[in-house]
Amino acid sequence: MGHLPTRSTRHRVVGALAVLLLGAAGLGSPAAAADAPAGQAGSAPAGTELDDGLALTPPMGFNNWNSTHCRAEFNEAMVKGIADIFVDKGLKAVGYQYVNLDDCWALPQRDANGKLVPDPVRFPDGIKAVADYVHSKGLKFGIYTSAGTKTCNSAGFPGGLGHEYSDAQQFADWGVDYLKYDNCNNQGVDAKLRYNTMRDALKAASETTGRPIVYSICEWGQNKPWEWATGVGQLWRTTGDISDNWGSMVSITKKNLPLAPYAGPGHWNDPDMLEVGNGGMTDTEYRSHFSLWSVMAAPLLIGSDLRKAPASAFDILGNREVIAVDQDPLGKQGTVISSEGGRWVVAKEMKDGSRAVALFNENSSPQRIATTAGAVGLPDAPGYRLRDLWQHTDANTAGTISATVPAHGTVLVRVSTDRTWALLPPAVDVSADEGLMVEAGGTGKIGSTVTDLGRTPALAVSVALTGPEGWSVKATSPAAAAVLLSGRKLTTGWEVAVPPGTAPGSYALTLTTKYRALTGQRLTSVVPASVHAVVAPPAGASYLSDLDWLSAANGWGPVEKDTSNGESKAGDGRPITIGGQVFAKGLGVHAASAVEYYAGGTCTTVTAQVGLDDEKAAKGTVTFEIWADGKKAASTDVLTNAMPAQPITADISGAKVVRLVVTDGGDGVDSDHADWADLRIGC
């Protein structure tokens, strides 16, 4: 994502203090040297496997930060309530075990002995009492601090730098089972020194109590911990903080996926906590979030207040089959098989030889996504079992793995060689053409295809396409077949009439296929399709921010009209400002971004003043591109925040669709707040 949000904001101090700390005989600080028992600091080199039996599968549990931050509702009652819900709602039974506190549990000052003091308002019975309650439920308890002089919250709660051994012993005495160690206020001290010192302190404390502590390194991936932290902690953050929106989740996924070679039992890549149930994404998007975290073998730490979460959140978080993918003891992180056009295939090798395969659709419209058993690493076989882990259904396939995946959706399957494949019904691939645009009052044509992917025939096949109320949808070719043999298709044409006066926008169609297996089993497959009702731009020059777009994708928060991108919430932008020049009209976006408009073949030019918005000071590098019907019509060089607004003009004559793209400039996403200022289309 483009930022490190507030709790992960760095407060580095340079100069004499950092020099003093770095020169402290190889320790994180002089205080750390004094705090450490003789002969214990730096006792094991980084990069060596920890043979402690901890976190042999990714940790599962809860952390309060995503739902409460430092607000007053984070307190003893909440923590105990979460522990109760883990038991009462069956989350403990499916593997969730850690109930973890984040920042703000302590007072801002240590006591006279240098000990941490729990906030008596939030935790009137103290931390040990809360830990004891969690343990009484058969669960484990976690806590938070930072590898700096203070934690990340602006209130300035005490951090662990210079107090590692004292704090670790205090945590162990309280019964802590899990420590999240953040990165704020680190005074510029080398990350490896800081995190190694706490590792050794936790080990020493655990030896005195007999209670091992899982160590979660939270330095946001800044120092590539995947390269050195295998012998330090059991998991390490690979990115900045997640936010409860689609763009943030996808951005983090893309950063974490390439790190698959570094993950394994006892050493996991951590793309941050789950947002499922917090309300900023749809259930389809939350299922994608949970599916992707599971196929990436990521820690599953619930970040929503389960006392308020909807039933749908429990359905997602409690899916045993998806959890089994995450918790597979082989410990492989899924790898990317393909990702063209935002159609992702990610495959995870499982201990039993099967493969978990995520078909992930990054796009804002349904997409057909396909791969094969061979491509995901399975051996040749007469047939395969295809298990849908969200629908909980089985089918046989000759080797093709495909589905029409809803916008922002993920189909997660488990594919295996199975001698009983012939007893299963055939898998069918049902898809419809995408990209149909129809002006209100007009008609358009769309095609659908049903393919038998199995080794066995599909019998009595029928297909129906339905649209919104008042729309007319008619088949223009046969919509049924008595039998489809393996690999055969039923292709049907449809005419779709959009009623006059229909407002511009994307409208859902539903493609329903029914068929019967040789065993007599009757099956139904329902997949989405869509049609864009469009209105041609008016003659003359128009501001594109005054028109409805076909689609909009953004790397951080939503695309904003006539303001800058702002942060992750809608409507939080500022006046568009590039190099001190303020613009009243335009789009505020964040790389990677793509916004599409209908031009209808009647427009000739798109013009804009483009650049990085001043709201991020000196940060950011981007390029701007204008595409017309899939061909690049104009682009800029890499732009930085030091540059004034740059003009861009594209000839789009005859184009039906104009696509406005912003890239990260080739150096990764970092505060890439970009503006399409004074953005106009001439028709």
Descriptive keywords:
single chain; 683 residues; alpha+beta; 6-stranded antiparallel β-sheet; 39 strands; disordered N terminus
Secondary structure tally: strands:
39
Compute the separation of the termini in Å.
36 Å
- The largest sheet has its strands arranged as 7-6-5-4-3-2-1-8
Helix content: 10-25%
What Rg, in angstroms, do the CA atoms define?
A: 27 Å
Instruction: Outline the biggest β-sheet.
Output: 8 strands, parallel
Unreliable stretches:
1-34, 38-46
CA-based shape: globular
Strand content: 25-35%
Mean pLDDT reading = 92
Computed structural class: alpha+beta
**What's the tally of helices?**
11
Structure description:
Helices cover 16% and strands 32% of the residues. The chain has 683 residues and is α+β, with helices and mostly antiparallel strands. The strands form eight sheets. An eight-stranded parallel beta sheet has the order 7-6-5-4-3-2-1-8. The two termini are 36 Å apart. Mean pLDDT is 92; it is low at 1-34 and 38-46.
